[in-house]
Design a protein that fits this description.
heterodimer, A: 487 residues, mainly alpha, 2 strands, 78% helix, B: 226 residues, 7 helices, globular, ND/Mrp_TM (chain A), oxidoreductase (chain A)
Chain lengths: 487, 226
């Protein structure tokens, strides 16, 4: 049963890639991509349920679907679905109809590699999957083929390839450490590394862990390795920005979460958590300062992604049921909310013909409906109730209060206020400031561009008011897997 | 670990291959000419292939011969060929505005190697006869990392940046041949192919850079800040 689910999960985007490239019809590739994305979303939920019954292992232990991986698959396929619907409305505005099949082919390929990363049980193959996501998304970042987007694509591939090579070094060192315990040749699974970790010479284990943390942290956008992120997120087409922010960062966080699981119980466990907390709080502080003085609308969203990835890292670093559950809930909520924000930003950018916040004024008079959704999304992403991010941030705060990182909680709370004021003051200016020059924007939102905003907004509100008990069970289960049932 | 049983001759073969590879990184660091980088990289890859083969022979891992052949073929021939094509297309023969003079980057590189040695020394607790090979492998692995990042930092030309990334990977590959020769074959092969795709992607991107950004020097890629 689970095998078939997995087969469909990967066959759908693959079919979309093949059809987009083979038929080369832009309309067909649009609909095939949406169809594949919806299929993936529908499949991902029974997959999560069946993974809860016990990890599904396939292909000589190279593939394993555990609850954590299945959860990230759910988050990724949600963003894939929303972004592919939005892409129909957005990409048609670019007037590059003949290149659309290429776009959708890459788009589904990107989703495919991210989904593949989630089920890799072999640490080396996981690294390869993450590397492939970079290679495919580079061309999506540079898709608009302007000077800025090409520059962003170049910086993206150089910085991320450099960073991810550190993760490869860390992986090799992990393997070497394990070879003292498990013999010179063994299958490099997460479980094997975890089994060997307590016996490995601590300094070696520490260096290995820091290397993978910096490596996957680069890909996840943790400061100070986040430098590629604002460029890539702001210069790529809006649906791609949503995928980068809402899906790719999750896939990389998965690597960090799994390596935290690997060193659990080893002598460096405490230090590893402190390092993750340190990167998390640093990302949060850096991002909030940049949010305050930002002038580009999509760069604002990009720094907000750095901030929220920092929050997720804090949750994982604080640990405990609350920390892990908060981080995972935050992952879902951030995926929904950031997609909504990038969709709104894409609409505004296209309508006003500028990426600069000062050029965007009186949004509500142009977009009465989608503008309202965007504003509510901004309130949500700044961490205010009744939206879902408030709940997950609050849970992470609770985890922090009970841990030995109270100082981090204090810094976190102070900068949450900074983010709240900084982020919303940009929105106040865009919505309620007088326009300096009266310029009538050209287009209003079509259904394709408004529908995904509703689809992101409604669950965001619902999850903010009601944390389903079944989700709590999922998180408790994942926490049990990661933390060995402690706490 | 197989190094516990190597004799001094074998240990010195491994060491000398690894050390010459490290020296070739310094050749790249000390030269202005893009072609020299590529030649040094090609020779380095051949040395790593020889290292794989010799580890395979002495330690009894026949699958390492496959790795050796593939390394020589891909890293030693195909990648340099692709890089030469990129250089030919760019019409950029030398690095014009390096942030650091070659002499200063050599000194900095030497300091980084010492730093790498200090870290490597802390990471090792083996104390058998050939343990110095372990420390050396770790040192070279880490120092090629540092040198690769140094090249990325002080060089502007797109080709130098690609080569910097390739040096990062060569370092890992070199070290892993000595430290973990038993690493599953599949992974090493996939990583080799992955590298090929990386360079192909870079090649395409360089073309976009020329057409759309009008430059291949990262110094001029300064539109996106803040």
């Amino acid at each position: 049963m689970a095998e078939y689910l997995l087969l469909i999960l990967f066959a759908a985007p693959l079919a979309a890639v093949v059809l987009s490239f083979a038929v080369r019809s832009s309309r067909l590739s649009e609909y095939v991509t949406v169809l594949a994305a919806i299929t993936d979303f529908v499949i991902s939920i029974p997959l999560l349920i069946s993974a809860l019954g016990g990890p599904i292992t396939l292909a000589h232990n190279y593939i394993q679907v555990d609850p954590l991986g299945a959860w990230v698959i759910v988050c990724i396929s949600i963003v894939y679905t929303l972004a592919s619907i939005y892409a129909i409305g957005y990409m048609r505005l670019l007037n590059e109809d003949e290149r659309l099949p290429l776009f959708y082919g890459l788009f589904s390929g990107f989703a495919f590699t991210m989904l593949a990363a989630c089920i890799m049980n072999n640490v080396g193959v996981f690294w390869i999957a993450i590397e492939l996501t970079t290679l495919i998304s580079t061309f999506l970042v540079g898709f608009e083929r302007e000077a800025e987007s090409t520059e962003a694509a170049w910086k993206y591939i150089v910085v991320v390839s450099g960073g991810i090579s550190l993760a490869l070094l860390g992986t090799v060192l992990f393997y070497w450490g394990g070879s003292f315990v498990l013999g010179p040749s063994y299958a490099m699974t997460w479980a094997a590394l975890h089994k060997a970790a307590p016996e490995v010479y601590p300094p070696l284990l520490l260096v290995s862990f820091l290397l993978v943390l910096v490596g996957y942290g680069t890909k996840a956008g943790l400061a100070p390795m986040h430098t590629w992120l604002p460029d890539a997120h702001s210069e790529s087409p809006a649906p791609v920005s949503a995928m980068l922010s809402g899906a790719l960062l999750n896939a990389s966080m998965l690597g960090i979460a799994r390596f935290l699981g690997v060193v659990r119980g080893a002598s460096i466990d405490g230090f590893a958590h402190s390092a993750v907390v340190g990167f998390g709080i640093f990302s949060f502080v850096i991002a909030s300062l940049f949010i305050v003085r930002q002038t580009g609308i999509k760069r604002l969203m990009a720094y907000s992604s750095v901030e929220h990835i920092g929050v997720q890292a804090l949750g994982l670093g604080f640990g405990g049921v609350f920390g892990v559950a908060g981080a995972l809930y935050h992952m879902l909520n951030h995926s929904l909310n950031k997609s909504l924000m990038f969709f709104g930003a894409g609409n505004a950018m296209r309508a006003y013909g500028t990426k600069d916040i000062p050029g965007i004024r009186r949004v509500l008079s142009v977009f009465p409906v989608s503008g309202t959704l965007w504003l509510l999304g901004a309130v949500g992403i700044a961490g205010a109730p009744p939206f879902a991010l408030f709940l997950s941030e609050f849970t992470i705060l609770r985890a922090g209060i009970g841990s030995r990182y109270r100082w981090a909680v204090i810094v976190f709370v102070i900068f949450l206020i900074v983010v709240f004021i900084g982020f919303l003051s940009h929105f106040r200016a865009m919505y309620f400031d007088e326009a300096t020059e009266q310029e009538v924007p050209r287009l209003s939102g079509t259904v394709w561009r408004t529908l995904p905003m509703w689809l992101a907004f409604i669950p965001l509100l619902v999850l903010g008011l009601w944390w389903p008990h079944s989700l709590w069970d999922v998180f408790a289960r994942i926490c049990h897997d990661l933390m060995g049932g402690a706490q | 670990m197989f190094l516990e049983h190597v004799n001094p001759l074998q240990a010195s073969i491994f060491s000398s291959l690894a050390v010459v590879s490290l020296l070739l990184t310094f050749v790249m660091l000390g030269s202005h000419w893009l072609q020299n980088y590529v030649y040094a990289f090609a020779v380095q890859s051949w040395l790593i292939a020889a290292l794989s083969a010799s580890v395979g022979y002495f330690a009894g891992y026949p699958e390492l011969y496959v790795i050796a052949v593939l390394t020589a073929l891909f890293r030693g021939l195909v990648l340099p060929y692709l890089l030469m094509r990129i250089i030919g297309r760019l019409n950029a023969k030398r690095e014009l505005h390096a942030v650091l003079q070659p002499s200063s980057s050599l000194v900095l590189g030497a300091l980084l190697v010492m730093f790498a040695f200090v870290i490597a020394n802390h990471m090792n607790r083996q104390s058998f006869l050939a343990a110095h090979v372990v420390v050396m492998a770790l040192t070279i692995m880490l120092s090629m990392k540092f040198l690769g990042f140094l090249m990325l930092a002080v060089r502007d030309e797109a080709v130098s940046q690609i080569l910097g990334l390739l040096v990062l990977e060569n370092g890992i590959f070199l070290g892993s041949q000595i430290l973990v020769p038993g690493m599953p074959l599949l992974i090493e092969i996939v990583i080799l192919f992955d590298l090929l795709i990386v360079v192909a992607c870079f090649g395409m991107l360089v073309r976009f850079l020329v057409v759309h950004a009008g430059t291949t020097s990262s110094r001029q890629l300064n539109r996106l800040v803040g």
